Amino acid sequence: MAERAVAGRRSRVRHLLRGIAIVYVGLLVVWPVAMVARHTFADGFDAMGRALSDPLVTRSLWLTAQVAFGAVVINTIFGVGISLLLVRYEFPGRRALSALIDLPLSVSPVVVGLALILVYGADGWFGPVLGATGFEVIFAMPGMVMATAFVALPLVIREVVPVLYEIGDEQEQAARSLGANAVQVFRRITLPAIRWAVVYGVVLSLARSLGEFGAVKVVSGNVVGSTQTATLVVEQRYQDFEQDIAYATSFLLALAAIVCLVVVSLIRPKEGATR
Amino acid sequence: MSIAVRHVTKTFGKFVALDDVSVSIPSGGLTALLGPSGGGKSTLLRVIAGLETADSGQVEIDGVDATDHPARRRNVGFVFQHYAAFKHLSVRRNVSFGLEIRKRPKPEIAQRVDELLALVHLEQFADRLPAQLSGGQRQRMALARALAVEPAVLLLDEPFGALDAKVRKELREWLRRLHDEVHVTTIFVTHDQEEALEIADEIVVVNNGRVEQVGTPDQLYDEPATDFVMRFLGPVTQLGDELVRPHDLELHAADPGGGASGQVERVTRVGFEVRIELSVGEQRVQVTMTRTQAQALEVRTADRWWVRPAPGAPTVRVDGRPPETLVPAGS
User: Fold this and answer.
1) Which of A152, A214, B23, B140 has the CA that lies 20 to 30 A from B319?
2) What ipTM did this prediction achieve?
């Protein structure tokens, strides 16, 4: 009898916790995102049609895709490299580097944008040099990619580092003793072991990069039709009382992010299946 | 392919793992590096393999100074305690890894892998993933993988340490037979003195980063160079200031000369063995004998007996250290 009472209490607690979690996620995430979708399709596909036939909107979407792609490529290459450095090598300042990598998560993206302007802007440290060579960073594509890469920097690393710790380095040592050089060890042993972590980090980075706003707004100059990304279009159109276009663009951004996450959960093998 | 290690020192921070170690391993033999955990034997093996770099000293493989060669150029096969199986590759691809790296022609690789899988009795598991094998099978796969590249030396780091007792015993006998077939110079690390005594041609006893003694199993057992070696190879007891094995002690009713008198404190029978504990002065001395011997002598608690080492029994002087009966590891 007592056992049954305890079991009953436990299941009540479980139901309660589940309810709280559902309400929390629902109020904070699902409902607001659903409202965006509802507003987008309030008049059927009219708003979406108007948004997609507006060249400034399509241009901004294309620009967002390019910036996000650049930032993800950079973050993947450096992310995997830094992860290997952090896990497989001992060097002075390793812990400091590890802590520094979380900085982009804690610093406001606006501050990131301003900091990049201070270094690469016309009056910045590298400004004169860059100006002389005619290579534009600020108010141009390179600056926007840099700002986005900065903001999404930790995402690949935080996915890959724990997996590298978990697999250990014995397989890599075995490969080396069998004659493999550093590149062969990485391609044949390390990369296959961390591939799902890399994919997951890439998708998170991509989703984050698509949605970047603050840092890009500062470094891009928000020039309509030139350096205006999708998130900047959303803000501008919303303020210009073109809510329908703002909602439609928002919906596309949210959709892209959701598609990313769904694709990953579909292609990622079940936990433990490959281990 | 002989190996010579000369004056190798290796430290990890303040911990001295190897302290000016010199040892030479003869060609074609099966050599055990035996010692307690943390004694430096695995570090020595990893220095030979090039997986660790010595702080100073020299490693020579087959007459060539390999000190500055990276692991991949030393042509050693290395087998890890926890198998280090390539988890995403099939058994076949694991074994062929070294040959693929060496860009051997495909038919040659296929043939060689088939031979090796037959050698380690894994033919029918060729297309499985390592996760689908038992521990013993994984270790045999790792062994085939190491042998595939025809290494100058085969190095095994506690190869059976992660396996249960029965499989461990089977595999070590199998390793001995395999070595008799393949004849590759082999060094294996173990902390199990029984394992070393049973299958090694030669044993190097390593403790506290130093080599205590090198010799055949018989030499080590019959002529231990230090009290450490004597203690490590099996149970010991102290009589006066000498270490002696409990089964090398004799009991006599009258003074046989060179004996000491003691009183029986306890008689314990474990199967065929009888353990007798005597107090000789301040000391507690352990004597073991077979049940038949004990019955013939009629040893009983509170009797007085003379005790002395059997003539010719190995003894080692101790320098004031209290006797501690080391429990043999792994048994």
Assistant:
1) B23
2) 0.83
